[in-house]
Amino acid sequence: xNDVRLRAVNIGARSKPTKVLVVGCIHGNECAGKAILRxxxxxxxxxxxxxxxxxxxxxxxxxxxxxxxxRGVDLNRNFPAGWRSIGEPWDTYHSGSxxxxxxxxxxxMRFVEEHRPDIxxxxxQAMELVTKHKHHRWVQxxxxxxxxxxxxxxxxxxxxxxxxxxxNYPGHTSFVVELPAGSMSERSAKRxxxxxxxxxREWAARR
Length: 207
Description:
By secondary structure, the protein is α/β, with parallel strands linked by helices. It has a single domain (about 10-205), classed as Aminopeptidase. It has helices spanning about 35-40, 60-65, 105-115, 135-145, 160-170, 185-205; strands spanning about 10, 20-25, 50-55, 120-125, 130, 150, 175-180. Strands 1-3-2-4-7-5-6 form a 7-stranded mixed beta sheet, sandwiched between helices.
């Protein structure tokens, strides 16, 4: 399968050294995070950091309402970090035929490699928590406090985007925000959007 191009929107000055990436949807049936990106898009451009928004890494899954992409692969088991073969196409956690076998995975990797975001936030559903990782934990902890979610360490999973980023770019931090099930209220989406911007401002202030 040919590679794909991501739809990424920049709403901050590209000259700033601090970069924040927010991904609204990687599993096609867990896309409530896109409401947060809409709020971020409507706010004024941040002055102190560069903000990138990717609405969906899995447009085919989103269109069909499936966790997997069009080839039945769970993209968040397909990254080349701790990857292992899991299941068959359309199994819940099918990891693909090999690491980075999927064009969406490779597109995300190229984007990260090119832009080197200092903070990456991946929205999922529906565990209602913020994941704890060893790099720059203060970012994750403060985000969790601002949105009222527990900050939890989970056992590492094979082939996840955060595992790949945190292994390859230890100076940065990539973490998951698990939102509640269902759609988000405008109030909740605004609260998360403000937490994103606060994280970017605080990172920029520490440089």
